[in-house]
Amino acid sequence: MGVLIWHDWARLLALTSACYVGWATLWAFFYRKFFWDFVGASLGPEGLVPPPSAHFFVVVIVDFPVLQIINLVNALVTLALEWPFPPLKRLKLHRSLLLRVFLYTWCTFVASLVYQTAFPALFYLVTLFAYATALAKGEIMGRDAQSSAAATGKV
């Protein structure tokens, strides 16, 4: 049996998360609703009416789709980082697991606010934990991993 390479599994999870968030965000542009509207809401003739304290979320999700745009940008950045986009592949920043942990923490938070991307936020959360585990285990990726594997004879 082999050993699970956490950052490889996390990469596949990140690609899945980005595709799912991108697709869900396109739906969110047409059907605007924020996920946490049921907290403190009252029942009205048109359904749940968000409380006045949720006015900020109504503005940035329903009136003008700011969070949807941020989610779409996050999905495209994730795809560019994980696919990888050729100019990014040569950068040392591309091989940083810590960057990915911070990026997917942000992506998870933003995706959890929009109704359509609340479930893909769980995918981002699992991706975040997989990359954090890879970081904790000391995994390295990219050219550094290939050169260290060649040096130790584990090719």
Automatic annotation (TrEMBL):
<dbReference type="InterPro" id="IPR056144">
    <property type="entry name" value="DUF7727"/>
</dbReference>
<feature type="transmembrane region" description="Helical">
    <location>
        <begin position="97"/>
        <end position="115"/>
    </location>
</feature>
<feature type="transmembrane region" description="Helical">
    <location>
        <begin position="12"/>
        <end position="34"/>
    </location>
</feature>
<protein>
    <recommendedName>
        <fullName>DUF7727 domain-containing protein</fullName>
    </recommendedName>
</protein>
<dbReference type="Pfam" id="PF24853">
    <property type="entry name" value="DUF7727"/>
</dbReference>
<keyword id="KW-0472">Membrane</keyword>
<feature type="transmembrane region" description="Helical">
    <location>
        <begin position="54"/>
        <end position="77"/>
    </location>
</feature>
<keyword id="KW-1133">Transmembrane helix</keyword>
<feature type="domain" description="DUF7727">
    <location>
        <begin position="1"/>
        <end position="139"/>
    </location>
</feature>
<keyword id="KW-0812">Transmembrane</keyword>
